[in-house]
Amino acid sequence: MNYPKYSKNLSRITALILALLILIPAVACSDADPGGADVTTDAVTDNTAETDSLDSRKSIEDNLPEADFEGAEYVILVQETQEYDAGIEELTGEVLDDEVFNRNQRTGDRFNITITHLNGGEAGAMSQKINKSVKAGDDAYDLCMAHVIQTGTDITNGIFYDWMEIPYVDITQPWYPQYAAEASTVNGKLCALVSDAALSSVIHTYTVYFNKNIAADYNIDAAEVYETVRSGRWTIDAMSEYIKPVYSDLNGNGIEDEADLYGNKTLLFYSFNFIWAFENPIVEIKDDEIKLVLNTEKTVNILDRLYDFYYTQDGVFLTEYVKSKEMFAAGQSLFLMCHFLPAMEELRSMEQDYGIIPFPKWNEEQTSYKTTVDGCFDVLVVPVTVPGEEIDKTGIITEALSADSWKHVLPVFYDVALKVKGTRDEESVEMIDIILNGRVVDFSWIYTGWSGFNFVFNDLLTSKKSGGDFASFYEKNEKSKIRVYEKAFDFFYEG
Question: Comparing C-alpha atoms, which of 8, 229, 277, 208 is closest to residue 119?
Answer without folding.
Answer: 8
